[in-house]
Amino acid sequence: MKNVQAERQRRAQKLARQKVSIALAPDQAPQPVSALQALQVADKYRANRHFQAATVICDQLVAAGVKGVELNGVQLHIAIEAKRLSKALKLSKTLSQLAPTEPKVAELVAQALRLANRHEQAKSLLDKAIRRDPNNADLRERRGRLLADLGEFDAAGDDLRKALRLDPNRTAPYLVLSLLNQLSEDEITKLQKLADNGAGSPEEVNFSLAAVRQAVGDIAGQFEYLGRANAATVAKRGNWPTDRIRDENTRQIELFDAEALSRLAVQSTPGKSDPRPIFIVGMPRSGSTLVEQILSASEDVRGIGEAALFQSTLLDLCLVRYPGLRWPEHLAQLTAEDTTEIRQRYLREAQEVYGGAPVLIDKTLGGFRDVGLIAACLPSARFLHTLRHPLATILSSYEQAFGELAYCSRLEDLAHQYLEHLRLMDHWKQLLGDRILTVNYEDLVADFEQQATAMLSFCDIPWTDEVLAFNNNPRAVMTVSARQVREPIYQTSVARWQKAEPFLKPARDILAAAGALPPQAEA
After folding, report:
1. 404-425 per-residue burial string, b: 16 or more CB within 10 A, e: under 16
2. Over the chain (523 residues), what is each successive 10-residue block's mean pLDDT?
């Protein structure tokens, strides 16, 4: 690997010598800097999830004639994290040609392939890279995560442990092992030492230990570690802007009424090869992955996971045509021509990334915000609203390392977000009627066959006996539910929230005041 490091250093020196005139911030004039400095600023924007600012700098570098692995690597990293998947696949191809033997390139390209549901390609790529560099901890961890998606849990554990032996300072593998229920006593002891010494990632260490305490029924201990983990997330991400979100949702309800739906609705009929999209919307941890796994048991159905494909398509159009407008004010500016273009872009992207399938299952956390606009853009779309007991949803969300979903880090924010999600879904149900079916998680696990039959009928998907064995579905599952959805239906999680109810009081009080708790929970 010495040759790889030397080549990387040589490229960095070349970028440091290359002078360009670049605006490093939206409100700044171009200034002379090195290409390396500009690229470092872009990558810092990317790390802070300011993807538009990072992209603008990269575009300027391309226009200035800058080329090479480092620029393409930052561009690919942005495309992966912003979920611009067709762009990520194109950049992956270029980057693989530029540096076919670099471990960092292989690890990054594997991420892109994984997001595009090309797990076998990603696995093959990582296998080759590990044969070249068997002691690379990044490659081992990446393959471990990939194998967990594929349900190869023992092999995943082997790679994750290898990554820990190669790099004892990393803590992310512990978190994955905790989700797979594979932590050994020795690993738990190491985690406890890390927590006591304040070492490693506080989120990864404390979420892992919370899972350990939950597994042995120590709810008080679980919530002690959850409090530490989520406090660290809040310190990093900041507070969830509950009041602003509520105001935006109120404004959206005002802007997107029956008249707006009629004005924006695409009139063209679907083409013969166009997939029929089914959107699964709802709060995280509401049973959405289970529903996706059931529906995708049919050979004519393709589940694409949490791709945020519609949201990225909408954002790309609005950034160009309506720059400077904050959500949801662009709803007043959109035209039928815009929604037609969004439809065309969405279907084209789905075809390029996921290939053809008669039915496409699109599951996106937070997708309930966009139901009205999705319905206007895609007249054949149907919606499954997954709903679970509010305290069960909140408990399960609070337990997970959902760093990008900042509201999951405080019980109060989770309660407010749950209420806002109900408010928006009530609006969409009044507007769209029978295009939305509510799927109650508790009903689904209590009477699986009847509820699954109703879902399939609503989606116009023929019944197949494979549905009854949905847990044997070989498709990759990129979610914290990866282990659970490969097990038969079970009811042990239905009332798990009741044991934790005293610790859920901040959320419970908010839900009770809003009348959002089922009657049995009010007693």
Report:
1. ebbbbbbbebbbbbbbbbbebb
2. 82 94 90 95 93 94 95 96 91 95 95 91 96 96 94 94 95 94 95 92 96 94 97 91 96 96 87 82 92 84 83 90 90 95 92 82 88 95 96 96 88 97 97 96 90 92 74 56 55 79 97 91 43
CB atoms within 10 A of CB 22: 24
Contact 66, 15 (CB under 8 A): yes
Spatial distance between the Cα atoms of 15 and 91, rounded to a whole number of angstroms: 20
With 0.85 as the threshold, say if the pTM is over it: yes
- 3-state secondary structure (DSSP) of residue 68: coil
482 phi and psi, to 5 degrees? -55, -40
**Rounded Cα distance, 372 and 390, in Å:** 23
Neighbours of 402 (CB within 10 A): 19
Which class for 288: exposed (0-12), middle (13-18), buried (19 or more C-beta within 10 A)? buried
Look at the block and give the residue holding tokens 């229920």. 181
DSSP 387-455: E--HHHHHHHHHTS--TT-GGGGSHHHHHHHHHHHHHHHHHHHHHHGGGEEEEEHHHHHHSHHHHHHHH
Q: What are phi and psi of 436, to 5 degrees?
A: -125, 130
CA atoms within 13 A on the CB side of 349: 24
385, 283 in Cβ contact below 8 A? no
Amino acid at 348: R
Output the pLDDT for position 193.
94
The stretches of 238-388 forming alpha helices (DSSP H) are: 242-255, 258-264, 288-295, 309-321, 336-354, 371-377
What backbone torsions phi and psi does residue 282 show, to the nearest 5 degrees?
A: 150, -175
Q: Residue 232 in contact with residue 203, Cβ under 8 Å?
A: yes
- Rounded to whole angstroms, the Cα distance separating 105 from 111 reads 10
pLDDT at 483: 54
Number of helical H runs and strand E runs in the chain: 26, 7
Looking at residue 350, its pLDDT comes to: 87
Peptide bond into 168 cis (omega under 30): no
Q: How far apart are CA 423 and CA 441, in angstroms?
A: 19
Q: What is the pLDDT of residue 521?
A: 46
